[in-house]
Amino acid sequence: MLANYLIGLREGLEAALVVSILVAYLVKTDRRHLLPRIWLGVGIAVAVALAFGFALFFGPRSLTFEAQEAIGGILSILAVVLVTWMIFWMARAARSLSGELRGQIDQAAEGSWWALVLVAVLAVGREGLETALFLWSATEAVTRDSDATWQPLLGAALGIATAVVLGYLLYRGAIRIDLAKFFTWTGAFLILVAAGVLSYGVHDLQEAGILPGLNTLAWDVSDTIDPSTWYATLLKGVFNFSPATTVLEAVVWVLYVVPVMFLFLRGARRRSAAAASPAPAPTPVNR
């Protein structure tokens, strides 16, 4: 539930920031008559994301076990690719996001009426589709082992609701958040969550017979860590930790976490150092 809350909070806050920038810019430039187009685009994006999530949760259930495992594994790996790209992209683009969106608004406002709708659909819809796919992948392992489907979904819903409230407060100027630190900390945590999703996706492909090594275990601590305990449930829900882990799952987890975390934290340190360093003094011109 904690991992899903964090996913909903981070992705929801990104979408809320995008919407608040779009709305604030139209209000400040005295173009309130264009706001319905923004809200129409947001509504379409949300509807598409919900439909995509519904198809993910209920679509594969009529397939064979091997087909379900294959689809689940492929989608899990795709979700990890998308969320990894999102983590690095948001870390780099956070400072310039506002200017880019304003430029898109100015161009769309001069075009057809649907151009501004399309800007909102693309800006918000990307976050919605990524959220639906990653939530499904992160939730699949938990819901398969129990009937508590509502807990991960509740966590995600609470995270999105929190993000909406924070987005509104940011728009009204009631609070300020250090977005660089927020995206750094949540990005590092989501890398660990994504590693668990990737590992479980590999396990799905092993059960589907696509990848080998299903019975070659790196460790089996089922006798020590009872899967029914609260801490086992917490590890499973947050990091997709399995007491019985295959060698291929463990290798993939390490090969993902080590380089991705290193590159992410190195980039975060460089951006922090660049933001803290003073601007160079202008060079005097000899006359």
What does the model show?
- The chain has 287 residues and is mainly alpha-helical.
- Helix content is 76%, strand content 2%.
- It is built from 9 helices and 2 strands, in the order H-H-H-H-H-H-H-E-H-E-H.
- The longest helix is centred in the middle third of the chain and has 33 residues.
- The protein is globular and about 65 Å long.
- The mean pLDDT is 81.
Describe the secondary structure blueprint for this structure.
Elements: H1 2-28, H2 35-58, H3 65-93, H4 97-109, H5 113-145, H6 150-172, H7 179-207, E1 217-220, H8 230-239, E2 244-246, H9 247-276
Antiparallel strand pairs: 1-2
Helix pairs in contact: 1-4, 1-5, 1-6, 1-7, 2-5, 3-5, 3-7, 3-9, 4-5, 5-7, 5-8, 7-9
Tell me the strand order in the biggest sheet.
1-2
The helix/strand series, from N terminus to C terminus, equals: HHHHHHHEHEH
Mean pLDDT: 81
Number of helices: 9
Fill in the keyword field for this structure.
287 residues, mainly alpha, two-stranded antiparallel ribbon, 9 helices, 2 strands, 2% strand
Brief summary:
The protein is an all-alpha fold and 287 residues long. The chain is built from 9 helices and 2 strands. The model has no long low-confidence stretch (mean pLDDT 81).
